[in-house]
Structure formats: C-alpha cells, structure tokens
Amino acid sequence: MKNIFNQLHSKEILKRIDKLNPNSKPQWGKMDVAQMLAHCSSFQNFAMGYSFPPRGWLGILIGNFVKPMFYNDRTLAKNMSTIPTILIVDEKEFETDKEKLKQKIITFQNNGPEKCTIHPHPFFGKLTSEQWGKGIYKHLDHHLKQFGV
What we know:
Pfam families: DUF1569. It comes from Heyndrickxia oleronia. By secondary structure, this protein is an all-alpha fold. It has one domain (7-18, 45-146). It contains 6 helices and no strands. It has helices spanning 7-18, 33-48, 57-66, 68-71, 94-111, 129-146. The longest helix has 18 residues, at 94-111.
C-alpha cells in the first residue's frame, strides 16, 4: 500500500493534483473539483492535528472493526458518506484550494510520521502514523480518480 510519507508517493499525488483544472468533471459524486480540493484539505487537517472533530456514535460503535478499509489495498467505494464537518457544499476557489492542499501534503510529508496527530480519526478512532499515511494516500487517490487523474 502506498503511503503519503513516502516522498515518491507524495510527489505522484502532487503531479496528479497539477493535472486538475477548474473544468475537471467528477465521474461520480456531487462535489465540483474546487470543493473536492477543499474537502481533501479539510481531511488533511485531521491527520495534521489542526482539527479535532468529535467521534460520531456510528464510528464509536463500528469504527474499530472497519478501520482497515481506511488503509488497506482495497479501493474505496464511490459515493461513500463523509464526515459532516468536511462536507463541502459552498463555492470554493480552484487555484486557492489547489495550492492550499498541495502545501498541506508537502508539510505533512516533510514533517514525517512523528508529527502525525495522536487524536483519533472521527470515524475510525485511534490510528498509527503508518495507518494515517496510508489512509491519507488512499483518500487522495480516491478523489483524484473521481476526477479522472
């Protein structure tokens, strides 16, 4: 499984983000490309320890049992529900949100696993830095595939 802490894997993600443009259309889902970039940036805040959303009751109940889906080799399902605090519905600015996400990926990768949050994921609960690294890669890969890159 690829890991965002691996420099080659983070560079690959950054190159794919650079292939997006304001007119990129989703192959599934409701977000436009700028909203997707803002969503991924907000998700990155969890792993970086910038945002601490509370755990929902469903995550508390089943999160521990299903958390391997976050960091294993299996593809994420299309149109999965998302964490309410990072559901982006308002209009976003493509270039601004693209650069913001890229900078967060670079910072996260440069900081390394030791700077990864110890706060639990809002659905899956406690994760190791390796699980976060794989999960961040997998989440970004999922949304980049959503937009055909």
